[in-house]
Design brief:
Elements: E1 4-9, E2 17-22, E3 31-40, H1 43-49, E4 61-68, E5 81-85, E6 94-98, E7 102-104, H2 111-115, H3 118-129, E8 138-141, H4 147-158, E9 162-167, H5 173-179, E10 183-186, E11 199-204, H6 208-214, E12 218-226, H7 239-243, E13 249-252, H8 255-261, H9 265-276, E14 284-289, H10 293-301, E15 308-312
Helix pairs in contact: 3-4
Length: 314
């Protein structure tokens, strides 16, 4: 195959990213070649760009059309519209994707909306699973205006939970309420969230002081799931408020570990169907050409984006 274009790390370029030609991928027998239509950005991959070596091809989430199905016969067949993820290299015109990471998407679901699902949607879903049955249970979600948090609020609401979301800025309050939260706590101090607790499940992506305060709000047998540290990696908390509750659990979630244990294709398909029938509404703050990737990445690093950013390949 001929060379193709991709976003690669170039330390001399704006945001250390440039659109360049790379060699076409050679798929393994269990990989399909996907012609990418759109990809979305995640904070983890974006932060990784700041230290990545020149020539590295970033990107996790993608959506598009299967151009060549897997040689072993697994996964979606040629011509199918799909959504999926890879560990790196999704920001390219053509990507080899393991079929266990791919799911077909309904015709009415746009490539842009589908592209928001893989890492953010699966992280939200797997984090909520740690709480088991959420019907009429109290759930606290920090970082509720982020890509994962916003989806987690919606999914928890549909599971019948009593959802309390945390928004860092006042303008995020209505955004979180519209997603299905029953209450919203605004600011970087969340002690006021205790009035709505204690919580059966806490989902945290903020770390720092927010996580330290949240760990004192668990109900007996409750679980706190952390998957990020946007505020800070160092946490101070009162152990007595944690262990004296009884049966409290603190779980560290990294989505790639979870997906290695249980592939996400079926969950991705379920999330796509939820978009199709209107139960899940990804909040896309920016949807633009992939030629604007550097500018959008910088906005994300500056924390100027509420919701997801999607880049489309023309």
């Amino acid at each position: 195959m001929n060379a193709l274009r991709a976003i690669v790390v170039d330390p001399s370029a704006p945001a250390r990213l440039a659109l360049k030609e790379i060699s076409a991928p050679t798929p393994s027998p269990s990989e399909a070649l996907v012609r990418v239509a759109a990809f979305s950005l995640n904070l983890g991959e974006v932060r990784g760009i700041t230290t990545a070596q020149a020539g590295y091809c970033p990107g996790w989430d993608l959506s598009g059309v299967v151009e060549q199905s897997a040689a072993d016969g697994s996964g979606p067949q040629t011509g199918k519209r799909v959504v999926g993820w890879v560990r790196s290299g999704a920001w390219a015109e053509l990507v080899a994707v393991p079929t266990q990471n791919l799911a077909e998407i309904p015709e009415k679901v746009s490539f842009g909306k589908a592209a928001t699902l893989p890492i953010a949607g699966l992280t939200a879903l797997r984090a909520l699973e740690k709480g088991g049955n959420l019907l009429d249970k109290k759930v606290l979600i920090t970082g509720a205006t982020g890509g994962v948090g916003h989806l987690a609020v919606q999914l928890a609401h549909h599971a019948g939970a009593r959802v309390v979301g945390v928004a860092r800025r006042p303008e995020g309050e209505s955004f979180v309420l519209d997603a299905g939260a029953h209450e919203v706590v605004v600011g970087e101090q969340i002690l006021s969230a205790s009035q709505f607790g204690p919580y059966h499940l806490i989902i945290d992506s903020v770390g720092g002081k927010v996580l330290g305060q949240a760990l004192g709000m668990l109900a007996p047998g409750g679980t706190c799931v952390n998957f990020g540290a946007s505020e800070g990696a160092e946490v101070t908390f009162d152990l007595r408020k944690f262990f004296l509750v009884g049966g409290a659990t603190f779980y560290g979630l990294i989505i790639f570990y979870e997906l290695a244990r249980r592939p996400g294709a079926e969950d991705l398909a379920s999330l796509a169907r939820m978009i199709d029938d209107g139960r899940l509404l990804p909040q896309i703050a920016i949807e633009t050409s992939w030629t604007q990737t550097s500018e959008v990445v910088q906005k994300m690093l500056n924390r100027e984006i509420t919701g997801k950013a999607v880049l489309c390949i023309e």
